[in-house]
Amino acid sequence: MDLATQALNRRPNAPYLWRLLATGASFALFGLGGLCLRVLIFPLLALLPGDTLSRQRRARATISRLFWLFVQFMYRSGVLTFEVEGAERLGRSGQLIIANHPSLIDVVVLIALIRDANCVVKQSLWDNPFMRGPIRAARYISNSGSLDMLDEAADALRQGQTLIVFPEGTRTTPGQAPQFHRGAAAIALRGATLVTPVVISVSPTTLTKAEPWYRIPSRRFHFHLRVGDDIDPQLFAAQGPAPSASRKLNDHLHQHFIKELATDERSAA
Q1: What is the pLDDT of residue 12?
Q2: In terms of residue numbers, what domain contains 88?
Q3: Peptide bond into 12 cis (omega under 30)
Q4: Residue 190 near residue 201, CB atoms below 8 Å
Q5: What DSSP element (H or E) covers 83?
Q6: What CATH number corresponds to the domain at position 131?
Q7: How far apart (Å, rounded) are the C-alpha atoms in residues 131 and 35?
Q8: Transmembrane stretches, by residue range (predicted)?
Q9: With the C-alpha atoms ordered 261, 149, 249, 114, is the resulting torsion angle positive or negative?
């Protein structure tokens, strides 16, 4: 009798099964939504009058709105809860947003909060059949790792765009501190009016690099996004040659994120 009771206790409960189904539905919705944007929505938007810049802004505004609805779907279906601090300071002219990358949906939430954001995205997404339509219509920047990418990102900032960059280049390995590449700092020094760090924490960890979508946590996860104080990149540019200034800015950002994430961990404990 005791063994039978223990076996029953190990079975997934109803809330867990619901969240598993809702998570699967979220992934299906995201993929089908991207495909629908590519084959239906953006071709129709392209028929509207306007120049290249107008079409770009329409595409980004459409993606931002749909991403916000997607986040709301995940929230209302019980997959996650979320908290955003300081969203009103996102989306300014020439602003470089530097964020850590603990989960798969980080960029989704950030773009959902900013109506006309540019973003540096992984090269592999340009060939993804579900994502390449929205990415190309919005004219996001491919993270090819080349000097051309750095120049393109700096040009976007000098034109007054808001640019989102994840300096890790990929999702953070759970249990490890984020490791920043210097590309984001180099972009900041070349073209940013201001740099704004955005600290993202996810508790419990989920949708990490090593986890399949169906390995969900025992409870719905909490997504916390906090906008930090602005940093003037020119303060670092004045400290020496570009390589040295880039290294100092990168170290400053790295230490900022380590400190803030440690604070979040202590608060969650």
Answers
A1: 62
A2: 2-268
A3: no
A4: no
A5: strand 80-85
A6: 3.40.1130
A7: 7
A8: 20-45
A9: negative
Residue pointed to by tokens 């006309």: 116
Torsions phi, psi of 169, nearest 5? 80, -20
> With contact defined as beta carbons under 8 Å apart, do 157 and 192 qualify?
yes
In angstroms and rounded to an integer, the radius of gyration of the C-alpha atoms of the chain is 20
- Among 119, 105, 125, CA closest to 26: 105
What Å distances lie between residue 224 and 94, 136, 201, CA to CA?
Answer: 25, 29, 5
pLDDT tens, N- to C-terminus, the chain (269 residues): 443 444 444 556 889 999 999 999 999 999 999 889 988 998 898 888 989 899 999 999 999 999 999 999 999 999 999 999 999 999 999 999 999 999 999 999 999 999 999 999 988 888 888 788 889 889 999 987 677 899 999 999 999 999 999 999 889 888 888 889 999 999 999 999 999 999 999 999 999 987 888 999 999 999 999 999 999 999 999 888 888 999 999 999 999 999 999 888 777 66
What distance in Å separates the CA atoms of residue 104 and residue 67, rounded to the nearest whole number? 13
Q: How far apart are CA 179 and CA 51, in angstroms?
A: 40
Q: Do residues 26 and 79 touch, judged by C-beta distance below 8 A?
A: yes
Length of the chain: 269
pLDDT of residue 269: 62
Closest C-alpha among 148, 75, 163, 149 to residue 118: 163
Domain count, the chain: 1
Please tell me the predicted confidence (pLDDT) of residue 228. 96
pLDDT at residue 268 in the model: 67
Could you give the angle at which helices 183-191 and 147-158 cross, rounded to 10 degrees?
A: 40
Which residue, 209, 229, 250, 236, is CA-closest to 106? 209
Measured between alpha carbons, how far is 26 from 89 in angstroms, rounded to an integer?
28
DSSP state of 127: G
